[in-house]
Amino acid sequence: MNIVELLEEAVKDLPSGEYSVGLNAIVRHVKAAIRHLERDKAFDPDTCTDAIYRMNQAYEGSLKEAYRVLAEKDPSGLSPFQIEGYLETHNIVRPRVLTQLTRYRQDYRNPSTHDYKLDFDEDEALLAIVSVCAFAKLLINQIKSKLASEAAQARAVPSASQSSRASLRSQGDRIARICLAYTNESSEVGWFEYERGLADSLKAAGFTAEAIDQAAIIASKGHADPWDVVIRKGKSIFGINARISRHARSDLELHRGSYFTTAVKSSNCSGGLLILRSEGQLDFQLHKGTVGTTPVYVITEHDEEQIDALSQDFSTLKQIT
Predict the structure, then answer these.
(1) Hey, how many other C-beta atoms are within 10 angstroms of the C-beta on 39?
(2) Are 291 and 272 in contact (CB under 8 A)?
């Protein structure tokens, strides 16, 4: 595996945009760092330190271009620390990626920027190159997924907005169909961007929707809440629970709906949608049933016979078009 080639191909795979110049500069800095590292250290003791300086440029470029696309803001004039803080507080970058970015800033970028007497050895330079290439590639994956999500929303969301007087219960079919359309259009959207894309699609259609930060809820409560996306209207909610797999499912018994149905029975819930999404699937179907008197919906790639396993928890599910 050539991590530099992976990074370069990831950049080439993106459509052209305002971020293109910056991302290509990142690749250029990485290649320059490798050339520094390959210089004869017997005649030039600064080769490793020079490589670090180049990787600092690649690191800052990765942060700024990710911020430009994911936060949809101009990164000019912002420090890496400020950008990291924004990405963390707005739950834009996956936590493990953000941890690695912060660690590089603290261990490499800040010392090399402020201590003019500092030098690095070959092992440290090699680790810096591998680390920055890896998280730059991960950030580019998130950029790609964000762009794919925006394109999927544009294809999936109808231009007409909802009636301001309509109840969430009466809008259930429309909510579910918007989510179905986005799901079918979002095969290139990564799992980490999918729920935010659902919420953005619903907002574009006129609903008050938000993606829920489950990690923050677990940190404060010690357990997850049922909803990944919530639509609110007054005191009523319509909840969406997205169960995402990177592989096709073959056993629906593993994905029974009891956890979902318990949440639907809440007094302020006007409806619920359960999404069973496997990455790479292109033809999802929509089913409708009830839990008590509350309408519920299921989006899955499975057909009518295979959906029977879930009907143990819901009143009989019927496919709707």
Answers:
(1) 14
(2) yes
